[in-house]
Amino acid sequence: MNYEIRRMTIEDIPVVMELEKEFFSEPWSVNMFLEEIINHESFVLVLEKELIGYICGWEFSNEYRITNLCISKKYHRQGWAEKLVRFIIAEIEKKNIYDFFLEVRKSNLPAIKLYEKLKFIQVGIRKLYYENPEEDAVIMKYKS
Ligand SMILES: CC(C)(COP(=O)(O)OP(=O)(O)OC[C@H]1O[C@@H](n2cnc3c(N)ncnc32)[C@H](O)[C@@H]1OP(=O)(O)O)[C@@H](O)C(=O)NCCC(=O)NCCS
């Protein structure tokens, strides 16, 4: 199947927002995505002209923090998230940044399993980091 990973643009935001609202109880706002596009890195995965996922992140000192990741439900378990995370790691390594971290809800086993498959390890807990519902975050790190 033909796919491309490219930078998110303002025109992508309506589709991105649909996915965001479907999957997250505290979805990012349009302004948050605008901020990502202007000041940080965010990429979309387009499969046969359909936007099926996105990933966002920030440089943070000499580390990179993955802040958002989502794949459309009908494309789950087909390796797309893995492709996106591997892509962003390769992109960021070009800037000589090799330390990656993220937070994920403790109950989000699909995401935790994904990151573990990619050799992220659990390094800590942020107590009650999330709201709606309140939940701890697991902090995961990867060093390439
Ligand atoms: C988490 C998420 C991004 C995974 O996307 P995906 O494209 O389905 O993941 P992949 O197909 O690339 O899976 C890669 C690996 O992750 C793990 N994984 C993914 N989904 C899983 C699930 N439901 N149960 C267990 N392991 C899972 C597996 O190890 C899988 O490898 P395998 O299929 O060879 O066993 C997707 O479920 C999603 O968008 N969820 C909603 C948003 C979200 O929670 N984002 C993460 C915020 S930190």
Describe the structure.
With 144 residues, the chain is of the alpha+beta class. The protein has a single domain (3-143), classed as Aminopeptidase (3-Layer(aba) Sandwich). The protein is built from four helices and seven strands; from the N terminus they run βααβββαβαββ. β3 (50-60) and β4 form a beta hairpin. It is globular. The structure holds coenzyme A. Residues 23, 69-71, 76-82, 104, 108-111, 113-114, 117 line the site of coenzyme A (COA).
Quaternary structure: single chain
Q: Tally of extended strands?
A: 7
In total, how many domains does the architecture comprise? 1
Question: What percent of residues are in strands?
Answer: 35-45%
Could you say which structural class the secondary elements and strand pairing correspond to? alpha+beta
- Share of helical residues: 25-40%
| CATH class term | Alpha Beta
Bound molecules: coenzyme A
How many DSSP H or I helices?
A: 4
End-to-end separation: 29 Å
